[in-house]
Amino acid sequence: MNPLNTLTGTLVGGLVLSLIIMAIAAGTGSSMGGVDAVNAFLIWLHVFAGITWIGLLYYFNFVQVQALSDAASDDEGPSGAAITRYVAPRALWWFRWAALVTWLAGFTFLLHTQNTINVFTLGLVPGGGDAMYGLTLGVGAWLGSIMLFNVWMVIWPNQKKVLGMVEASAEEINKARRTAFVFSRTNTLLSIPMLASMVGAGHGMMF
Question: How many domains does the chain have?
Answer without folding.
Answer: 2
